[in-house]
Input
Amino acid sequence: MWQSTARYPLSRFEGEAMIDPSAPLPRPRSDLTEPPDAPQALSGALGVLQGRMLLQVSPARVGYLRGQLDAGRSGLVLCGKNALRKAKRLREEEQFSGPLLVDPAVYEVRAASEEEPFPPASEDTFAFDDPLEVSLAEQRAVGVTAPVTPTGYIRAEDSDALKAAVRRVADLDDAQVVFAAPVDVGWLREEDAVRQLIACLRLVKGPKAIMLGGQMDPLARHGRAVDHLRRVIEEVPGAALLRTDLAAFGALAAGASFTAFGAGSRLRHIVAPGEKAKTSKGFSTSPHVLFAELMDFFLGKTLADRFAGAPAPVCGCAVCEGVWALDEFASNAGERPARAAAHNVAVLMEWLRTLTAITPGLARQQWWHEHCGAAVERYPLVNAQLRQPDAFKVPQQLKQWALAAPASVADGANGQTAANHQRRS
Amino acid sequence: MASGDLQAHPGMLALARESRGMTQVDVAAAMTKAAPAGAAVVSQGYVSRAESGRLVVADDRLQLYAAALGYPVDLLCLDPRVSGVGVGLIHHRKRASLSSSALRRIHAQLALVRVQVTGLAQAAAAAGVPHRFSRVLLDDFTTAKDAARQVRRAWGLPRGPVADVIAAIEEAGGLVVMRSLGSELLDAVSQWDDLQVPLVLVNDHAPGDRCRFSVAHELGHLVMHPAPGTSSEQEKQADAFAAEFLMPAADIRQAFADGVDLARLAELKRVWRVSMSALLRRALTLNAITEWQYRTVMVEMSALGYRTAEPVEVELERPTRVPALVDTLLSDRGLAIDEAAACARLLPEDFKGLYVAVDRSLSPEPFRR
Output
C-alpha cells in the first residue's frame, strides 16, 4: 500500500489496511439489487426539518414571501450578506419560530482543498481561528435550528478535498451539524465518482446538505445526472438537497430528509468560485415567474411577449386568486417583483402540500414522475395554442425527471415490453 | 548439464512457437526443412504431442526444434512457470478487432521479453534493484483517479505534465521494452506478478501522444489490477488512471479557464503531450468546458480531419534502462554479441535486431540508476 500523506494516518480512505476497525463502515453497495437503506430520521432539534422543503432566500427578500410559507411544511435558509443578522432579527424581533438555517455560502468565494476544506471566507479572519468552529458558533448564537458547515466549493474529482471535509465533520461527532456538500455537478457524471460521493457522505453522522455546482441548470449538463442524484439521495441516509430548483421536489420524493428551493435564480444552483453566474437575457428588467403548468420559471417579459396575441393563463394560486394573469409581470415596476415572488412561493407550497399528502416512498415518486410527465406533454399544446412552435422549450432537467420513472414503474414497463416482444414473436 | 541431457519443456515449446506466430503445422514444416536430407518428415501430430508433454524432445530433435523456431536450445528447456514467464495477469491496450491468435503471439512475446531482460539484468549484475511500485486497492472510497494521484505523490512527480512517462516508470524500477509488435491493433501489454519487476512491452507504431497514454494506461493496470476482473470495467479504470496521471484535474481545470478553441488546444497539446481529443474530453469531464464548447471544437476537428490525424507531433518516448543493460554488457563488460545474446537466451542475429541495432542507436544514454 502507498503511505498515506494525509494528516490523519488512520484514514478510512486509503484502502483496506488503513481502515479503522472500530469505525462504522457504510454498507457496501456493490449489490444493486439490495433495497437502499430506509431514510434516516433526523434526531434532536433537527427533527423539525424532516420532510420539509425550505426556501433558500437572501435576507432582503424574506419579506416578499414569508406570508406564503407553509408553517408545517417549510422554513427558511438564509444565504448571503447579512444572513446571520437577519436570522437574529427573525428570531428575536420578528417572531419567526419555524425551521431556520443560515448557509455561510463560503463555496461562493473559496474552493475546498485537502488542506483547507473549510477555508476562511475572507482574508481578515485571524489565522488561529478555526473557520469551521467560528462559523458553527456564530450560527448557533443567532438561534438557527442547526448550524451548517462553511464548506468550500468541492470541484469535480477533488476527492482529497471531499475526504478532508468529511473527515473533519466526522471528527466533530455531532449529529446536530448539517454538513454542507457544495459539489460540482461533475460528481454526478460517472459511476465511480457517484459511488465515491455516496461512500464519503455516508461517513457523516448528521444530515448532508448537497448543493450542485454548475452554470445555469447543473442537472441538465449530464444525461444521467438526475438518475445519479436520485441514487445519492436514496443511498445516503440523511441526505438533503439545498439551493436547488425542481430537484427539491424530486429529491423529497426520492426520500431526502429535507430540501431547499431557491427563491431567486441565483439561489437555485451554485457556481464555482471565480466564475460569474450566467443569466438569461433581460434578467434585470422583469421578475422570474413560475409557469405552473410548464413547471419552469420564465421572465415576466418573456411571458408577456409570448402571450401578446393570445389570452394568458390566469393563475389560481393563493396570491393571484384567479385574478392575475401570467403576462402581468412584464417589468419590475411597482409591486410586481414582490407579487411574482409571492406567486412563485404560493405555487411551490401547493405542490409541496400535494406531495407531502402522499405516503412517502414509491407513491410519492410516482406522483412526481407523472407531474413532470404531464408538464412535458403541456409544452406542445401551449405552443400550438400560441401558434408558435418554439415559444416554450421543455427544459432538459424536466425531461430527465419525466424519464426517471421510479424503479418498480420502470420494471413494470420493461416487463410489459418484454411481454409484447414475446407476443410478437 | 551436458547438451545430451537437455530436454525441452512442453510449455516453453508452445510459448516459443506462439511468439513466432507459427502454427503447429508451420513448425512441423520448418523442422522437416531443417532436417538433413532423407530424414523422416515431421508431422503436426509430433509437434502437438511435444507441446502436450506426451513425448520427450531431446538430442537431435531438440536441435531441430530450436532451429525451426529460431531460438537457442536452452530457452526451449526452461520451465515457464519456474522462470515466471507463464504466470501473472497480463493486461493489454488493444482494439477489439485484434484476433485472439495475434493476441496470443504478443502475450508470448511479452513472456519471452521477461526471460530476455531478466537474463540481461543478471549478467549485468543489475538484478535485485528494489522497485517502488505498490498496489492501490480500489474500493468505494478510492477511484482510479485517486490511484493515479497516489502514484504521482509516491513517485515524487511534480505538478504539471509528466515529462517522460517511460522514464518515470523506469525510475521507479519498472522495465519498459519498446519494439514493433507486428500489429497496429495493440498498443502495449504489461505484466507484474508481485514477485518480479513490473514489465511493459510497448508497440512502437503509435504516435508519441498516444504512446504516452498507452503506457500510462498500462501503469494503471499494473498498480490497480492484481487479479482479473470485468475486462471492460478494468479498461475504463485504466483509462481513468491514465487521464488523471497525465492530465491532473487541478492543472487541466486551470488550463481551460480562459475557454478553448483549436489554437489553444494545439498549444495545450504541446505542453501536456497528450492528444487534443484527450485534453478536450478531460476538460469536459471536469466541467471546465461546456458540452456545447466540446461539441463545437469536436465538429471543427472532424471537419479538418483531426479525428484521424492530429496536428502537433509529440516525440516518441524511448526506454533507456534495458538499452543501458545492453550497453553495460557490450561496452563495460566487453562481451561479444553472441555472449550477450546467450544471456538473453536469443540467437545473435535476433539479439542484434531486438536489442542492439534499434535500442543502442536510439538510446545511447547510460543506465541511470
